[in-house]
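---------- Forwarded message ----------

FYI, see the ATPase record below. Original note from H. follows.
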Amino acid sequence: MGISQDWKTGADGQMFVVSFSGGKDSTLALYESMKTGKAVGLIIVLEEDGTRSHSHGMTIDFIKAQAASIGLPIYLAAANWENYEATFIDMLHKMKTLGVEALVTGDLDMPEHGCWHEKVTNIANLTLGMPLWQVDHTEIVERFINLGFKTIITTVNLTLGMCEDDLGKVLTYEYVQELKSRGIDPCGEGGEFHTTVIDGPIFKQPISFRPIEIIRENNYAFLPLQLIYTND
């Protein structure tokens, strides 16, 4: 594509896959893109040992539960940071053989020049759809809540105004205002926090889970979520 003005509508009328984190932004981008294109699946790059996703640190079981509730196949690959880009491009090439025409991401503030996702989609000869690009951050969060999505805070950066008490909080209008009053971006775009979506209009059923013991690592604290399996 190569033209940033087209990023917001890059997946319109296309068969697309979503670079899925399990968090609010990629989920909302999926929802918005499903209005105008056809979702083929979700792609996630796992950490090198293949047990958790990069950045958000979600377990494979939880990722698969989200995908099953949404009703889309999920495509997984493992990589370290050194071969992450090559692995991602390889995944895109494989998606193209399945008829995929576009990659959708939930990015908000990508620069017009030097965008990594544009680079990799150009290599794979796909278009790039970023329906949330340059949208006001509060507007995005409020749209997400208005639509009936439910997400909780599962990762916090303790050096950027967040604390362990934020873990497990549901993203509500009141909590968004609290975050803003603390000087924290309501979308966490500065790396302040990550979320995990557990319900919403594209979910067939909510994800049942229980929080388990908080994990602390360097400047971060994580709230692992353990699936609760129910018999139909």
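H. also flagged this: The chain has a mean pLDDT of 93.
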